[in-house]
Amino acid sequence: MKVMTMTMTLTSKRQTVFPLWWCRREKLENGGPLNVFDLGKDGLLIRPVKAPGKEVIARLLEQTPASRHSSRQAAAIVNQALRPGV
Q1: Sheet holding 44-48, edge to edge
Q2: Residue 56: how many CB atoms within 10 A of its CB?
Q3: Is the separation of the CB atoms in 28 and 19 below 8 Å?
Q4: Which domain holds residue 61?
Q5: Cα–Cα dist 47/73, whole Å
Q6: Is the pLDDT reported for residue 5 higher than 70?
């Protein structure tokens, strides 16, 4: 099954279809971006887009700089990125 993904913006009016308790829990009472995953007949999966934490930002800044890499270096970067929990 192919899952379609899109991003939408929730305004401060919350379009009245999102419960206020959920918006408060997800810190969206003033609106914000959402990722929407179309699960076909199973419905939609809607998750707020969260800003990355300090640890994630630090890890991203420590990454290999964007430039030309050999195919060996590129493979190592991809393998590192695909490791779970990294």
Answers
A1: 4-10, 32-38, 44-48
A2: 11
A3: no
A4: 52-86
A5: 34
A6: no
